[in-house]
Specification:
7 strands, 5-stranded mixed beta sheet, alpha/beta, 16 helices, two-stranded antiparallel ribbon, single chain
């Protein structure tokens, strides 16, 4: 084999290796894109892969072990007051059959139990109709316990709805529970219609909550995806410390904010960095939890980002410590100036990494929104309140997979809005729902 043939053969091998290299690069890009769904600064811990919660990694990362801490005082369940008493006595000895007589001591043992499954109570309502002698109109008598629609009681409607939206049971399992507990048999389609009746009963409450949300001074807003007929929609949560309003829309954009809050909204929105919020209003508090999560992610990947991450955390701790005593407005204003100056110094630095520069750009673009909480005592520095409001919907999403139609989305919106709001206010959801059905 002469020199030219050897060179030609080597060139062919080089070309083949280049092609293989390009294919491998493309495949790596695909895998990295898939991995980014589970390992990025916005991924919650529950979705991360790779055993991040293992004891080995907890020790490596300096995380504390789960469970009760040393010195923690346990909580003992309060002893219940008995509703009735049972005397447990014996007449004769089980060993020798001698007569036992009076006991030498009596031990008290309080047992808490549940009653046997209750049979359905079937009530016949004989509803009187009248002709008014004054106006000649027909008048129909009403009873608060007689439902306006259908053959199932208000208690049944409320129970089915709570089982669906608080206990997270599918319709077929609700059917099993009702049959086991009460001997009441109905189809899954009927159970869906019971939740629709509950939804109709709370319509006015739903609209009243919307009115109060629109007048909120501080509002925490977040959104997450949900499927409707297999298509991607967005579920929005608008929450305050006492109320939460939920809607499901196709859009994740500003038009939802315009629809729900209207142009008359003058409050402060606490949110993440999603662009529609800044387009809708300039009264914003950006979420520090998102910011620190992203800086930590960069610091783990890029050494240049580590000092920035430490500085952001130090600044955040310093501000929270200073605000803990609820200082007067003039002190808050000084802290605000100090924080802006400190953050601006880090923004003005030069960074070699393109990813760090991009992160700095995010900080810079939201510069006016990082320290609203310093000036306002009623504003929280994170959007955790809205994220917590969405967690129940995320769990429901995993269970149901997809909402079936517009009727299903309407039921979900109304029921989840009122149940969440009642829970925030410490109210009994079953009793509240039953009262709305009786009203």
């Amino acid at each position: 084999m002469d020199k030219d043939e050897i060179i030609g053969q080597l060139q062919d091998e080089i070309d083949q290796l280049k092609r293989e290299n390009e294919l491998l690069k493309a495949r790596i890009g695909e895998l990295e894109a898939q991995l980014a769904k589970y390992e990025n600064p916005h991924t919650p811990p529950s979705m991360k892969r790779g055993g991040n919660n293992s004891r080995k990694n907890q020790k490596k990362n300096g995380r504390k072990k789960p469970g009760q801490k040393k010195g923690h005082k346990g909580v003992t369940r309060q002893r219940a007051e008995p509703d009735r008493q049972e005397d447990v006595r014996m007449g004769r000895c089980p060993y020798c059959d001698a007569e036992l007589g009076d006991p030498v001591s009596v031990e008290s043992k309080i047992i808490e139990g549940i009653p046997e499954p209750q049979p359905v109570i079937v009530t016949e309502y004989k509803i009187a109709h009248y002709i008014c002698p004054g106006c000649q109109r027909e008048v129909v008598a009403t009873d608060p316990d007689c439902p306006k629609e259908g053959i199932f009681s208000n208690n049944t409607i409320a129970e089915a709805t709570v089982l669906k939206y608080e206990e997270r049971l599918p319709h077929r399992k609700i059917r099993k529970v009702l049959k086991r507990q009460y001997g009441l048999d109905m189809s899954p389609a009927t159970i869906l219609d019971l939740t629709r009746r509950a939804s109709d009963a709370v319509r006015s409450e739903y609209e009243e909550i919307l009115d109060r949300i629109r007048g909120a001074k501080v509002l925490y807003v977040d959104e997450t995806s949900i499927r409707v007929q297999g298509k991607k929609y967005w579920i929005w949560a608008f929450t305050t410390p006492t109320e939460t309003f939920v809607v499901i829309r196709k859009s994740r954009g500003m038009k939802v904010l315009m629809e729900i809050l209207t142009r008359r909204f003058t409050g402060i929105i606490v949110c993440d960095g999603w662009k529609p919020y800044a387009k809708f209003t300039n009264h914003i508090q950006r979420c520090w939890a998102h910011l620190l999560r992203e800086s930590e992610y960069l610091a783990e990947k890029i050494a240049e980002a580590a000092p920035l991450d430490k500085a952001l955390r130090r600044l955040y701790r310093k501000l929270n410590d200073a605000l803990e005593s609820d200082p007067p407005p003039e002190t808050r204003r000084q802290l605000w100036y100090m924080a802006r100056a400190a953050l601006r110094r880090w923004i003005r630095r030069e960074y070699a990494s393109e990813k760090v520069e991009k992160f700095i750009g995010k900080i810079s673009n939201g510069f006016e929104y990082w320290f609203t909480f310093v000036l306002r005592s009623d504003v929280e520095p994170t959007n955790n309140r809205a994220e917590r409001a969405l967690r129940e919907h995320v769990v429901q999403r995993k269970i149901i997979g997809t909402l079936r139609n517009e009727k299903g989305t309407s039921i979900h919106e109304r029921i989840m809005t009122v149940l969440t709001t009642w829970a925030q206010q410490g109210l009994n959801s079953f009793q509240m729902l039953r009262s709305k059905l009786s009203g």
